């Protein structure tokens, strides 16, 4: 391949490999990648396009290049996997050209997972947690500002004053006694 033809250095690809290799695994060193992160790398860097390359293809290639008993692949095995996937992803290109194009997709990529949960939460959860829309007994658990009342809102705290619940003249006994003296 001619120099300066947009060739991606393996170092850049390896940097991406390491980023994905440690993704979601606190014990990972970045030298080996498990199948889950391999699929994630392929999805996030658009190696999986849903037409020519599917996640099943990626799984099969992963199983093919890893050592029989291993559950992870090294960067070297990763490059083998890429050379298997490249002709599938870029049909009609030469092997080398296809691999370069594939590396072009991967270089500079990192796991795309920042803020994923925030997007999912938005409208549905806000609607469900808006206490102003609560009715019935649930409404009793929040004050006007929407702040929970804690135990007072959850439990029926018994009135132990000795008066019947609907009695209007509560705490007027002493006044009546004084009147009659």
TrEMBL record:
<keyword id="KW-0963">Cytoplasm</keyword>
<dbReference type="InterPro" id="IPR008907">
    <property type="entry name" value="TPP/p25"/>
</dbReference>
<feature type="compositionally biased region" description="Basic and acidic residues">
    <location>
        <begin position="171"/>
        <end position="181"/>
    </location>
</feature>
<dbReference type="InterPro" id="IPR011992">
    <property type="entry name" value="EF-hand-dom_pair"/>
</dbReference>
<dbReference type="GO" id="GO:0005737">
    <property type="term" value="C:cytoplasm"/>
</dbReference>
<protein>
    <submittedName>
        <fullName>Tubulin polymerization-promoting protein family member 3-like</fullName>
    </submittedName>
</protein>
<dbReference type="GO" id="GO:0001578">
    <property type="term" value="P:microtubule bundle formation"/>
</dbReference>
<dbReference type="Pfam" id="PF05517">
    <property type="entry name" value="p25-alpha"/>
</dbReference>
<feature type="compositionally biased region" description="Basic and acidic residues">
    <location>
        <begin position="137"/>
        <end position="157"/>
    </location>
</feature>
<dbReference type="GO" id="GO:0015631">
    <property type="term" value="F:tubulin binding"/>
</dbReference>
<comment type="similarity">
    <text>Belongs to the TPPP family.</text>
</comment>
<dbReference type="GO" id="GO:0046785">
    <property type="term" value="P:microtubule polymerization"/>
</dbReference>
<dbReference type="GO" id="GO:0005874">
    <property type="term" value="C:microtubule"/>
</dbReference>
<dbReference type="GO" id="GO:0032273">
    <property type="term" value="P:positive regulation of protein polymerization"/>
</dbReference>
<feature type="region of interest" description="Disordered">
    <location>
        <begin position="134"/>
        <end position="181"/>
    </location>
</feature>
